[in-house]
Write the structure tokens for this entry.
Amino acid sequence: MKVLRYLAGNPMSLLGVAILLAFVLIAVFAPVLAPPQEFQMTPYDTPRAGFLATPQPPSADAVFGTTEGQYDIYYAVIWGTRTAFKIGLGVVAISVLVGTIVGATAAYYGGAVDEILMRAVDAFMAVPFLIAAMVLTALLGKGIVPVTIALATFGWMGYARIIRSEILRIREMDYVHAARTYGASDLRLIALHIIPNAFFPVLVLATMATGSMVLSASALSFLGVGTEEGYADWGQFIAYSRNWIIGQPGNPFQYWYTLAFPGAAIFLFVLSWNLVGDTLRDILDPRHTR
Amino acid sequence: MLNYAFRRLLMLPVVMFALSLMIFALQMSLTPTQRLAAYAPSPDFLKGGQESIRMLIEQYGLNDPFYIQYGRWIGNILTGNLGWSETARQPVGTALASLLPATIELVFLAFFPGLLLAIYLGSRAGIYLNRWPDHLIRVFTILGWSFPVYVFGLLMLLVFYSALDWFPPGRLSQWAQAVVASPSFVRYTGANTVDALLNGNLSVFLDALRHLVAPVVTLIYVNLANMTRVMRTSMLETLRQDYVRTARAKGMPRRVVELHHARRNALLPVATIAGMELAYMMGGVVITETIFDYSGLGQFAAKSAANLDFPAILGFGLYFALVLVVLNLLVDLIYPLLDPRVKTK
């Protein structure tokens, strides 16, 4: 409740929540805002108005214009919202799950198990994240499932560390000792008493990670190993715009729309997650003063 | 002290061993035929039909049990032979060594000014807590933090290259490349700006600088938020200490207390985070280098990853692990200098 009141009282976080809600609405109503056309295999295949290479400026047919290969930018921005939510939430959910299992196991068994698992965490942390995710995606093939798996594979370590240290801290608290004295099993203690109390720090990390995972996913698309050609994905469309940064002589901003719309979409999406996460972190930081 | 440094360095083989296992496991997920391509010196190599491919697989032992293959592979690496990179068309070691100076040049030019800016902005924000400079700095840094590197980079290109033609991509203009490649120009370090100065060639220096501006500004801005935030929190904490209040009570001017007494002690947590940031940049300027077509390690690593060029990927991974361990060690060694209370055990 205190959290909600703080969120409401802070203009920056309110802005974040508002943008986030707008994106949720866009994702939910995507079929209404940009109805899929006939002959599409999935609604995520962006329709194209011909095969001309040169982008075409916004018009009545394509309100945001078309990018390289005549893919409709408006359609991709709308359906790309769903892609972003799927990848961001998917990666974070898998990472939290894996991290919780690893961290809880390490803290519960302690000793050699703890040592081995935490050294594995160290090893994964010593891997250059983006390059490792690129390699895994290149091995698994294109599409949002490989991207999600690749990002989660190299993104769970932070949660494992937090869960482990929280369990070690909370385990020694009085209420846990009390629960143990009237006979609660270790598993019950961890699942019902300890993990729910370790939830908040994980929530902050997960909120901040959602935005940055969407950034990484679209970076993969940008670097050429992400989603399939023409898939409604912001990173992919920004990658198309890269070839059209330079306009014709005398008109340097000729193809501005190829970058501006997908770029603005991803910027606002990440911004909203960061604003919300930043506020949550402030609330939880004991050093925070109001 | 030396003992401590030595123990930290012992971590390196452990991390590198785990890393090599990881990369090897990824590599083994390919079929022997796919892995054979890594040994191919030219496309004709694989054109001999099924029978010759099977023979080559035998010859290189690509069907052996994995531990034998791993042993052979790691044996090669331990003798200093990192293998041949198809992406660079060079041995991996040579490619890494020739690209490292470019990345160091870019990273140092972005990291140190960025660090100073973060310290400045963070301490301002702390001093003016919840007043307009604090809010302004917060908005400014959170915007940069939310910008995808490639969107900001492309915007830089759009404005400063396409429209104004001030800061072109690449590392040097064509004429400057010719100068640098000429025999009279001595390559001391491989970093263009430094070499140009050492050769006394001011126009090449300015040209190299002109190509560095856009990637440097991009890197500084998108990485600013983290360090600024840590500096701000740390400054807030220090300003609340008793000795700060005592100094103010004695009638010492506010500025002196804030800038000399408080800020110096507030720098400590920033040192830790700055070390991490530097390590991350040394291994992570992938996108920036790709956008600005700046041929350094990041661009090379990205190309190798997309091509599944495993010798190059491993080489880059080992390089990154080394950077990480060495920088962490450096931070640990610098820490006692910043804070005499911390004694390295």
Notes: Chain A has 13 helices and no strands. Chain A touches chain B through 46 residues (CB under 8 Å). The mean pLDDT of chain A is 83. The radius of gyration of chain A is 22 Å.
